Amino acid sequence: MKNEALKIGIILGSTRPGRVSPQVGNWVKEIAEKRGDAYYEIVDLADYKLPFLGEPGGEKQEKAWSEKIDSLDGFVFITAEYNHSISGVLKNALDLIRTEWNDKAAGIVSYGSTGGARAAEHLRGILGELHVADVRIHPTLSIFTDFQNFNQFKPAELHLNNINGMLDQVITWSAALKTIRV
User: How far apart are CA 60 and CA 53, in angstroms?
Assistant: First the structure.
């Protein structure tokens, strides 16, 4: 079990048409895969079509979501800032399940007019309630300087160090927390 690679899900927290989270998520995944320290995969909320909490039906989607999150050791959330917070679909995805999140680690990569900092702060509070340890390094991307025409991702070189620092912390904490889940 000790030599088993950690599984880190890069969760795309937006399903809005024209979203840029797939560009950001793929960039993070490219950087992560070069490290060779874990298995990284994109987990796109758009693929799950989750019902809103309390709506009837959707058991099949909820089960698939539950199984996916349960199978992961840690997370990197890619979150846009919507009205000073996270998207409704991300909040719903977090709320639909509970114990599957417990005792895992997460990094946050946010973007928006203020780098998505307010969304990340809201997400941190939610993750704490779900027993997810969020890491300190938090890369923030500006919609003004890291995106051409607000929709084509062109990250500044300086973000590379922050992404790797965040991933270092996610891997360390994910490995440590895995020992109490086993």
Answer: 14
